[in-house]
Write a structure and sequence with these properties.
The protein has about 170 residues and is α/β, with parallel strands linked by helices. It is about 40% helix and about 25% strand. The chain has a seven-stranded mixed β-sheet. Helix 5 runs antiparallel to helix 6. The relative contact order is 0.14.
Length: about 170
């Protein structure tokens, strides 16, 4: 069971659907109605998407509303965490952690040094918000990050964090 949160137009989704194995299921949770329509179109028109369509769902809702029947083996988040309040980031991280089965993997990306760069040109209030986001992320990265990949050719360069919560 794979969950992608905030797939947008499906750039990462395209890589995920190509790697789905027989018996895998993919849920996509997207809040933006225009992106939801676009994703449905990709499942109808793109041959790589169409072949896995029977095992995929596009859910037009917020991640907080997702009531998973069972936890996911892999959760991929494309949510722009730097754009949210500290409280929203903490809530999102809590929900994502709940949705990943023990021993499963949560992967999310962020642009390298964006918070630091934005802080240089921001108001005090904005700097405090960005620092709060860094602290919220550190609370999950420090104990649970198992790998970090860098995507230097991306503009701006990105870092992909992979977290694994211990088995119970």
């Amino acid at each position: 069971r794979v969950l992608e949160v905030g797939p947008g137009t499906g750039a990462v989704t395209a890589q995920v659907v190509r790697r789905l194995r027989e018996g895998d299921h993919l849920d996509l949770v997207e809040l933006n109605e225009e992106f939801v329509r676009h994703l449905h179109g990709r499942f109808d028109l793109d041959p790589a998407f169409a072949v896995v369509k029977p095992r995929c769902r596009v859910l037009h809702q917020g991640i907080e509303e997702l009531a998973a029947e069972e936890p996911y083996d892999v959760v991929i988040s494309g949510l722009p965490l730097n754009n949210f309040s500290v409280a929203a980031v903490e809530q999102i991280l809590t929900v994502l952690q709940r949705l990943v089965r023990p021993g499963g993997v949560l992967s999310f990306f962020e642009y390298i040094a964006i918070r630091r760069a934005r802080a240089v040109v921001s108001t005090r209030h904005e700097r405090e918000r960005l620092q709060g986001i860094s602290q919220a992320l550190a609370r999950v990265l420090v104990p649970y990050e198992v790998r970090r990949d860098y995507v230097w050719p991306n503009l701006p360069p990105a870092c992909v964090h992979h977290l694994r919560w211990p088995r119970k």
